[in-house]
Write a structure and sequence with these properties.
heterodimer, A: mainly beta, 11 strands, B: four-stranded antiparallel sheet, globular
């Protein structure tokens, strides 16, 4: 079974631009979560989508948004990029079982550099 | 919320057991503890999870204290490929979904 895939793997943008990152979950997984990883803050939860709806949200500004499609694929968007948005963005998928949180399977990440 | 506390770094000799502690003193009765690891430049990998009983799988064992305030991940025979950052998380806290990974423990396995 194919793992979680993320595109693109690397991205360079300039301040003020916007960016869209894509994530394809493992087949059959309906929950998709996004995380930001930086050396200073570690691995932080952005949001989680299930059945095309944002179900949970971390503590990030409104510039960070996402969506999920009917095939469970997800995109996240960052508008008005700031230097501090430079990070590894990770996507994770999970089955939605009988527990609210289920073990997550992570993709390789998208490395975003903001100049 | 049930924050976790882990040592910043640990080291272990190859072939020996690596015991990674995690403190989660504010955990509630129905909140699971999950462990992940992240090898450099890769996404985190799920290892194991538990509620109150000890758990074992092909990767590791998880020992949870009776009061559930702490747990220990055991890699029984560490190899060089186990060098990674290990995260202990309590993703559900006070009814809220907060999978906070923090900084984890950097484990270095040396020859």
């Amino acid at each position: 079974k194919a793992g979680v895939t993320q595109t693109p793997r690397y991205l360079i943008k300039t301040r003020g631009q916007q960016v869209t990152l894509s994530c394809s979950p493992i087949s059959g997984h309906r929950s998709v979560s996004w995380y930001q990883q930086t050396p200073g803050q570690g691995l932080q939860f952005l949001f989680e989508y299930f059945s095309e709806t944002q179900r949970n949200k971390g503590n990030f500004p409104g510039r960070f948004s996402g969506r999920q499609f009917s095939n469970s694929r997800s995109e996240m968007n960052v508008s008005t990029l700031e230097l501090g948005d430079s990070a590894l963005y990770l996507c994770a998928s999970s089955l939605d079982g009988n527990r609210i949180y289920n073990e997550q399977f992570f993709g390789p990440g998208t490395r975003l550099t903001v100049l | 919320d049930a924050k976790t506390t882990q040592p910043t770094s640990m080291d272990c000799a190859e072939g020996r057991a690596a015991n990674l502690p995690c403190n989660h003193s504010t955990i509630s009765g129905n909140e699971y503890v999950y462990w992940y690891r992240q090898i450099h430049s890769q996404g985190p990998q799920y290892i194991i999870h538990g509620l109150k009983n000890n758990e074992t799988n092909e990767m590791a064992s998880l020992i949870i204290t009776e009061d559930r305030k702490s747990s220990t991940l055991i890699l029984p025979h560490a190899t060089l490929r186990d060098t990674a950052v290990y995260y202990c998380i309590v993703p559900l806290s006070g009814g809220s979904y907060i999978p906070t990974f923090g900084r984890g423990t950097s484990l270095i396995v040396h020859p």
